[in-house]
Design goal:
The complex is a heterodimer. Helix content of chain A is 19%, strand content 33%. Chain A is an alpha+beta fold. Chain B is mainly beta. In chain B, β6 and β7 form a beta hairpin. The two termini of chain B are 13 Å apart. The chains are: A alpha+beta, B mainly beta. Chain A binds chain B through residues 6-8, 10-13, 15-16, 18, 25-26, 28-30, 32-33, 36-37, 42-49, 54, 57-58, 61, 68, 71-72, 75, 77-84, 100-102, and chain B through 7, 9, 11, 14, 16, 18, 22-23, 25, 27-28, 30, 35, 37, 40-44, 78-82, 88-89, 91-106, 108.
Chain lengths: 218, 116
Amino acid sequence: NLQTDGPCPACWGAAFDLESQRELLLSLAKKSILNKLHLSQRPTLSRPVSRAALKTALQRLHGPRRQETVLEHDPTQEYEIISFAETGLSSVNQTRLDFHFPDRTAGGLEVQQAHLMFFVQLPSNATQTMNMRVLVLRQYDTNLTLTSQYPLQVDASGWHQLLLGPEAQAACSQGHLTLELVTESQAAHRSVILGGFSHRPFVAARVRAGHKRRVHRR
Amino acid sequence: GINCQGGSRMCCRQEFFVDFREIGWHDWIIQPEGYAMNFCTGQCPLHVAGMPGISASFHTAVFNLLKANTAAGTTIGGSCCVPTARRPLSLLYYDRDSNIVKTDIPDMVVEACGCS
């Protein structure tokens, strides 16, 4: 509490001495930002992201900016989250990608839209037929279950973007998404999906702080 | 709005910039470099009460001073120096899973102050 002698803290007579109150104001700022981000403390970074991956992802985030006024009238806070893949069990023809999403508030996340971005390196003039599988963990089951799969036709090297369907979005909301990219050519000697520092696959999701449906006891 | 400067004791906006590097937050907050946690401070005498922000012109203030003097003793309650315009704070940061998160926190930066 700041020392005030008036009925209203903003109306005190004495001039406010910034320097003497600096520490207090800095701690207020920290508390305010963490509170608005629904964080109990500042995150500690366990797995740093390479600058190259960050740069690619930011180019992805800095798409056309929507009108701020839309946001002002909509009290629900929106987030754009970029989650980098951890490559799990993979082989030449099959790349497994694991993505972790935060449980933003007690109510979880509502995914509005999600894209997978991945880099494909093909021999020149080659095309590649692939399958993308969405795997989820069922309750009381330790094995991943295939929920859906989508055929892909890749006809050039470079970054490719794929809109993720409702099953994948639901998995993001649960906090963990597992995808598998399966190539169909048997002749390959190495995976066409690049996963190095500057070509790390990622999912870009636009989410809202969701509100878990309340269960009322009758 | 009026920015606080010198010995002004009237309702004004006090600028206060929090440098994330100074508080050791520059590793997990990618952008921006800091947060303008401006706030409102100063007096709201009777003749400027109810005149938020730039509408408090000189003539209006003088005219209201006359009215306030004649009406002294009849008005009740105080007038506070409060924000009259705010804007979001856009943040780009890492969460604990090293995901990159971008969000706009509404009403975080005070742009102008006035008397309620």
